[in-house]
Design a protein that fits this description.
By secondary structure, the protein is mostly beta strands. It folds into three domains: 40 residues; 129 residues, TolB, C-terminal domain (Neuraminidase, 6 Propeller), CATH 2.120.10.30; 174 residues, Kelch-type beta propeller (Neuraminidase, 6 Propeller), CATH 2.120.10.80. The chain is 9% helix and 33% strand. It is built from six helices and 24 strands. An eight-stranded mixed β-sheet has the order 11-10-9-8-12-13-14-15, with no helix packed on it. Strand 20 and strand 21 form a beta hairpin. The radius of gyration is 24 Å and the shape is globular. This is F-box domain-containing protein.
Length: 382
Amino acid sequence: MAIAAAESPPPPSKRRRIEPSLIERLPDHISETILSLVNRPSLLSAVCTRWRRLIYSPEFPPFPSLHTLFFDSNSDQSRIRFMCYDPVSSKWDPLPPPPHDSPLNRILYRHPSYISFNLPIQCISVAGKLFVIAGSNRDLSPAITHPLIFDPITSTWSTGPKLRSPRRWCVTGAYDGVIYVASGISSQFSTTVAKSIEKLDLNRNLNREKLDQNRNNWEELREMRDSRFSREAIEAIGYKKKLLMVNVKGNAIKEGVIYDVVLDDWVSMPEEMLVGWRGPVTVTEEEKLYSVDESKGTVRIYEEEKKEWREIKVVRDGEEMLKGAMQVTTVAGKLCVVTGDGKIVVVDVTTEPARIWNVEVPNGLEPVSVHVLPRMNRPDIF
């Protein structure tokens, strides 16, 4: 009887490659749960390639990244760009371009008739997405009638429901999944628009994945008491079921108001709170208010029980780095500040004194505003 020849092993190139376990002797689904509890993804990235791939996979909670609006100083006057800074790889990635006919392509940051004046572009981050709410076109009219929405998880742009009153130089803010737009001007000044406020509730009757632009979901609220908030682009700070607004930037005489989102009512801002508005203000997840003095570079925290602002000590020369602060946002105890000289500065207020460092920005791009959102998909990792 003939004996069958032993089957020869496949050549090395055709052998199946067996991936090592994420954690030895543990099933991968359990390892993924354990590793997802690490709050510093950069530590996981430094261990091995498999862990680096994991933190960019759908199985791992998306870590926070800086989504930044830039002005391209090397391009024409209307060129703005959105990019995402990945803190793990220390790499800037451009956001996918919006559709060709998107209003985003018509927004101006600098107008040929105003050499030293920048036109405001107002964006906010809500429910894990970036919303572009207001801006001006070449005719100095509102460039946006429907909010433009970027979803970093799907890396797609979409359009939200039409605003009741498209406007520019207005108040924009959010609290608990609700977007608020108030005051400002349309093509021409109107007292009706300057005193109006409307909201878009993302928690009610809306699909967060894709807001229907054909539905009128904006709700009109009780109008403001006067029209003094139509002079500048203003950020409404969501703080303990209220929106805090101050009508003038810089060291000029200011007026502050507080809108109660529960009672739909307006009250004047207490003087002890208003005095701290010497630059951009932000609020943390723990509802702590921080301000950055644009002329002195000092950082302050509002102590509600004492009804006063307390200065936070920073590292040596840190205040020089923060002078000219224009906009600030926060995540995990870190303030991310855009300064007037084209820098992004991070302040770690969890340390004493607070540590400060620069985030290197791409050449030729001038940061306008930063927003903390989940990281974008990185297909180049796989």
